[in-house]
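Quick one before lunch.
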Amino acid sequence: MKGLVYQGPFSVSVEDVPDARIEAPTDAVVRITTTNICGSDLHMYEGRTDVERGKVLGHENMGIVEAVGDAVGRVQVGDRVSLPFNIACGTCANCVKGLTGFCLRANPGSAGAAYGYASMGPYDGGQAEYLRVPWADYNALVLPAGTEHENDYTMLSDIFPTGWHGVELAKMQPGENIVIYGAGPVGLMAAHAAQIKGAAQVYVVDQQADRLKLAEQLGATAIDRSSGDAVEKLTELTGGGADRGVDAVGYQAHEIDGVEHPEIVLNELVQVVKPTGGIGVVGVYVPEDPGAEGELAKQGKLAFDFGTFFFKGQSMGTGQCNTKQYNAGLRDLITEGKATPGFLVSHEMPLSEAPQGYDHFDKREEGWTKVVLHPGSTA
Ligand SMILES: NC(=O)c1ccc[n+]([C@@H]2O[C@H](COP(=O)([O-])OP(=O)(O)OC[C@H]3O[C@@H](n4cnc5c(N)ncnc54)[C@H](O)[C@@H]3O)[C@@H](O)[C@H]2O)c1
Ligand SMILES: [Zn+2]
Ligand SMILES: [Zn+2]
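Model of the nicotinamide-adenine-dinucleotide complex:
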C-alpha cells in the first residue's frame, strides 16, 4: 500500500510501505477515505522531534472498516468510522476515567499514544491507504453511513475535540467571555466550540490576516497583534479582563518579529484573564524545545509568570485532548447541523500530492488553513 513517510527535516514522500494488517484479535483495518495534515505534524516535519525516518505519519484519520479481528464485535466491516488521534486500551485505570490521552497500556512509560507520531508509540499513521486500529471496538467512533459531512466529521479525530477541550480546561460557562490565542486550526475550533457552548463574546488573537478573517466569519472579534498591543486592546474591549482564556499556540509562540518566545502567550493570558479566571492550554509544550531562543528555553524551561498567576488566583488546565470524551457528542452536533467544523478545510488533494500539501501548509501560506488528503482518490 502507499503511505506518506517521514524522510528527514522538510522532507516527506509517498512510498510503498508494509500493508496494514490485523496483528491482534482486537484490531481492525480501516481503508482511509480522509486524513488531515495537522499543525502537530509540522513539529516532526520541521525536524524538532526524534521521529524516525520511514515512519508513516497521520493521526487525523477516518475511513471505512475493511477487516476486523476475531475479538471485535461492536464495529463491523463496512462501518464508516472516525479514529481519535489518541490510541487507548479502554480498560486501564486512566481509560476507565475517560483520560484516553494518557492510556497506561498503549505506550507504557510515556504519556499517551497516537498514530504516526514521534515518541507516542510504535503505531503507523493514517496518511496512507489503510490503517491498523488497535482496540477497535473502543477507539473507533461509528459515523452515519454515506459521504455526507465528510469534511465536518474529519475534524472529530483531533482538532474539533481539541478546541473543545481547551474551552473545557478553561472552565468557561455560558454567558462568559473568552480570549483565544492562535487562529490556527486549533484556535478556530476552540472559537467554534466556545460559541456553541454559549460564550457571550469570543476574542481571537493572531497576526495572520487570513486566519483572523476566518475568526471574524465565525462571529468572533479578531485581534491583530501586529497592529498594537494585544493585552491592552483586550483589557479595553473586555472592560478590565476576560473571564477565560485558551492557548492554542504552544511553544512555537513568537514575537511579531518572528523570534520564538515560548512563554509569551501564557504570560499574556495571565495578564488578560481576570482574577479567579481559568486558562486552558492545548497548544503543545515539550520538556525540551530545541527550537527556542533564550537561556531558560535552551535548558527546556519557561519563564512563566507564576507570581501573577498565583496572585490572581487563576487556574490552568493542560495537556493532550482526551478525544473520546467529546467525539460522540460532537459527531451528533454535526449530524444535527449544529456544528460545522468543516468550514476550516481549504485544500483537498490525493495522497500523492501530500508532500506539496505539507510544504504549503508548513509555510502558513495565505489561505492554507487545513489540508485534507483523500488516499482513495487519484484525481
Ligand atoms: N493538546 C492537544 O491534544 C493538541 C491537539 C492538536 C494540536 N495541538 C497543538 O495546538 C497548537 C496549535 O495547532 P494548530 O494546528 O492550530 O497550529 P498552527 O501553527 O497552524 O497555528 C498556530 C497559530 O498561532 C499563531 N501565533 C504564533 N505566535 C503567536 C502569539 N505570540 N500570539 C498569538 N498567536 C500566535 C500563528 O500565527 C498561527 O496562526 C500546536 O502546538 C499543536 O501541536 C494540541
Ligand atoms: Zn492533529
Ligand atoms: Zn488505557
